[in-house]
């Protein structure tokens, strides 16, 4: 297995993280035409159809698919879309939701009984300091409610990571498609109950070509292309080579929001981003640095 990305494969990984990062801009623009829970419902419905007729069901229990679908569909994206509907800016949303890395570590250690090591505590402290700066600067574009919803979305994402890990080595594209079956009904029910049938009907009737393109982009580019390409790369390179590329997602998110939405990048926001991403980078890369210093091959990071 190669340890260095070829130029072609580097560009493929870059395309994936660019899609994942700029996707926050797409979400914000689409929410101007559709209620958030309706948008989430349509996103997962389009992910299911017609792909489910061409992809065999992964060999995992139904309860595993249901758990992943509910955590990712309702928990992560449902809360993310609600938060981005006027409660937090796209750039900060793309940054804060990366805290899922630490939530995933915490849940894993809770299940295994392991403890955080010294460097991991430092990484967590850096990221927490960054979130603290954001809390101190909540304003009309970012509220405490929005920040809280994004943190809950990150926790749901972390729970989905644990459930997906329990599924073992499966076709992730098929896994995402089949698990989405369990996201659509509760999202649709919540949309009708919370947003009202009138808003749902108006959202569907009033959506223009861009809104429907945003739904398709969410389902096909963000989920199916992203997972397929990422999984393909992970099958050919060590995870320690591929996963650091994910640190670019907030850069694309914040950069895209600044470029297309005019979201400001004041010093406090850049400082918070540096702390959060510094914590993420330290947690992700320190095993590789440690093993390199000790003269041992870097262990694969999952």
Description:
Helix 1 runs antiparallel to helix 11 (209-234) and helix 2 packs antiparallel against helix 3 (62-84). By secondary structure, the chain is mostly helical. It is 74% helix and 0% strand. It is built from 14 helices and no strands. It is globular and about 60 Å long. It has one domain. Residues 298-302 have low confidence and may be disordered. The longest helix has 27 residues, at 267-293.
What descriptors fit this protein?
globular, 14 helices, disordered C terminus, mainly alpha, 74% helix, 302 residues
Short description:
This protein has 302 residues and is mostly helical. It is 74% helix and 0% strand.
Report the count of strand segments.
0
Number of domains: 1
Query: Approximately what portion of the residues adopt beta-strand conformation?
Result: under 5%
Distance between the ends: 16 Å
How many alpha or pi helices? Answer: 14
Which outline best applies? globular
Mean pLDDT: 85
| Helix and strand sequence | HHHHHHHHHHHHHH
Structural class: mainly alpha
User: Over all CA atoms, what is the radius of gyration?
Assistant: 19 Å
Largest sheet: none
Please render the helix and strand layout as text:
Elements: H1 7-30, H2 36-48, H3 62-84, H4 90-96, H5 100-112, H6 118-136, H7 144-167, H8 172-180, H9 184-195, H10 197-206, H11 209-234, H12 239-242, H13 249-261, H14 267-293
């Amino acid at each position: 297995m190669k340890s260095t990305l070829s130029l072609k494969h580097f560009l493929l990984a870059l395309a994936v993280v660019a899609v994942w990062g700029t996707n926050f801009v797409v979400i914000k623009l689409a929410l101007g035409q559709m209620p958030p829970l309706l948008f989430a419902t349509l996103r997962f419905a389009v992910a299911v159809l017609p792909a489910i007729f061409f992809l065999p069901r992964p060999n995992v229990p139904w309860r595993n698919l249901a758990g992943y679908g509910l955590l990712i569909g309702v928990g992560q994206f449902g809360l993310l879309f609600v938060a981005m509907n006027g409660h937090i800016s796209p750039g900060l949303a793309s940054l804060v939701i990366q805290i899922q890395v630490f939530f995933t570590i915490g849940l894993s250690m809770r299940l295994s009984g392991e403890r955080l090591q010294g460097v991991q505590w430092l990484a967590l402290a850096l990221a927490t300091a960054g979130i603290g700066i954001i809390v101190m600067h909540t304003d009309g574009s970012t509220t405490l409610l929005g920040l809280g919803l994004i943190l809950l979305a990150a926790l749901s994402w972390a729970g989905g990571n644990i459930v997906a890990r329990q599924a073992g080595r499966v076709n992730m594209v098929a896994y995402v498609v089949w698990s989405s079956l369990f996201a659509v009904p509760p999202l649709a029910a919540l949309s009708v109950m919370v947003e009202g049938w009138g808003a749902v009907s108006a959202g569907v009737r009033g959506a223009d070509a861009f809104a429907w393109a945003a739904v398709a982009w969410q389902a096909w580019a963000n989920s199916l292309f992203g997972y397929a390409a990422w999984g393909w790369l992970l099958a050919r390179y060590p995870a320690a080579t591929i996963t650091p590329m994910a640190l670019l997602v907030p850069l694309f998110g914040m950069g895209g929001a600044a470029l297309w939405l005019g979201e400001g990048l004041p010093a406090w926001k850049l400082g918070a981003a540096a702390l959060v991403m510094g914590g993420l980078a330290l947690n992700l890369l320190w095993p590789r640095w440690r093993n390199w210093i000790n003269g041992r091959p870097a262990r694969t990071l999952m």
